[in-house]
């Protein structure tokens, strides 16, 4: 044995190795496959990124219907994987690993993606990597902007609203979370109440543009409490009460309700972000504070404006990956797979799908935590 | 031809390798749950025991239902995933046809060639997944999710009953004999049906027989002026 020390430390041995990974994402209402390369220097390159949205399949129901989603995933996924491989211009033999979302998410869809990945890994004789969907969101900023650990992440989507401290691959601390509805869910429910189309986020934002955000005085729940937890269920109810008082509503009423709701939501998130960045600065005095945003609600312009202000007020850098990498996609799954692969973090073919899978195993469970999709 | 057969549509998790010469290696476990964890390892095991590699496979037969929606998607995802990597034919086999085939193969029914066989599996809401097979084994109707009473009433007087839903049919047709109560197909029957099937033109798709459980939203919406 020439160099026993190197043999004992596969992590250090492999970190400088490039990795080419196929990623699969099926945990909610996007069927997606992508090929991503992590270069030896740690930088990422997206070779292909195919996403097929199921929005039309669910629009009639005003939210994601799990069984409809699962049926669409199995009908589409193999073709989408073929397309991703073709667009990347590679064969299965070229891959270093196959990664798939194993949770959290809707179990029917997760099973389709994870089983497809297991089959490809087995048939192509490649390692399997079971990726936590939330970790993939958290690591996206390393793919797009090469952000170094530690950093703060705000994940804000239809299923999640949480502040996470990312200390390393597989090493996360949840600093705060919604205690009831996810913010995206509150947008969807507000849209539903006001007769706006699904998905609610873009519809509410559009209506809010011609609205007066100060007309309705809506609550900012938990704003004056310590900590980083948030609540949106009360805000949603307040919108409903205000709408009922104003009924029958005009288009201007609806625009004002949307604007007032969006103001309140953005205020809550921005004030929490500011506090999170202050806490970060205390924890890591020598590190430039970075706030990374992820999730579909990150597309909301008003929310971004609030986060921008919070970052500026605390001397932090706001990193917002392009919106198609903030919403659900498979490039982030492939990238998370690559980050795990170079650390030797691979999974057996017996790995379980995990509909609930918090990023921070030590954090106490919250209502709605680790659950995706509108609760229809 | 070397064929791999998979089934996770019901309570069993099964995999088998069948060769042209009729030699069969199979693994089948009564799981209830955990198919997603077990199936890939089971495929590795049967292929190793049979001494075949993926490059040797020319066809994969997989049960497409009726059965558990989530369960049938486990094996179907795996079959379709294999076919993305290797140029294999995919053949879908219904659980009802496989159970009917199993009954005939088992020889438990000496007169089966001459008499119709009704196969039924329990479905929710007082229904059964059911199909009638004619004497000789060919389908005499389409598979359906149907009230046990309705299906049973239409059965010919010389039919016999099979499958875990047979009891539900017999309640309404005490005159008919139950010859088998299989809750899941025999993987050997799935493999042999798959081997006998013609080359498919399109990949197999799930046979759900029931729509997703979802209603268009009718929730409260504010009144417009």
Overview features:
heterodimer, A: 376 residues, alpha/beta, Nucleotidyltransferase, domain 5, 2 domains, 5-stranded mixed beta sheet, globular, disordered N terminus, disordered C terminus, B: 225 residues, 10 strands, 30% helix, T6A_TsaB (chain B), ATPase_NBD (chain B)
The averaged pLDDT of chain A comes out at 91
CATH topology of the largest domain in chain A: Nucleotidyltransferase, domain 5
- Overall SS class of chain B: alpha/beta
Task: Give me the side-by-side strand order of the main sheet of chain B.
Answer: 3-2-1-4-5
Within CATH, the superfamily of the largest domain in chain B carries the name ATPase, nucleotide binding domain
- As a whole number of angstroms, the C-alpha radius of gyration of chain A is 21 Å
CATH fold name of the largest domain in chain B: Nucleotidyltransferase, domain 5
Q: Count the E strands of chain A.
A: 10
- Total helices of chain B: the number is 6
Order of helices and strands of chain A: HHEEEHHEHEHEEEHHHHEHEHH
Main location (chain A): cytoplasm
Cofactor (chain A): Fe(2+)
GO molecular function, one term (chain A): iron ion binding
Keywords (chain A): Acyltransferase, Cytoplasm, Iron, Metal-binding, Transferase, tRNA processing
Question: What's the arrangement of secondary structure elements?
Answer:
The complex is a heterodimer of chains A (376) and B (225).
Chain A: H1 4-8, H2 10-14, E1 19-25, E2 30-38, E3 44-53, H3 55-58, H4 66-88, E4 97-103, H5 107-124, E5 128-132, H6 133-145, E6 151-156, E7 161-168, E8 171-177, H7 183-193, H8 200-208, H9 233-246, H10 251-283, E9 290-294, H11 301-314, E10 317-319, H12 323-326, H13 331-341
Parallel strand pairs in A: 1-4, 4-5, 6-9, 9-10
Antiparallel strand pairs in A: 1-2, 2-3, 6-7, 7-8
Helix pairs in contact in A: 4-5, 6-13, 7-8, 7-9, 7-10, 8-10, 9-10, 10-11
Chain B: E1 2-7, E2 12-19, E3 24-30, H1 35-50, E4 59-63, H2 69-85, E5 89-93, H3 95-106, E6 117-122, E7 127-133, E8 144-147, H4 148-153, E9 160-162, H5 166-172, E10 177-178, H6 187-196
Parallel strand pairs in B: 1-4, 4-5, 6-9, 9-10
Antiparallel strand pairs in B: 1-2, 2-3, 6-7, 7-8
Helix pairs in contact in B: 1-2, 3-6
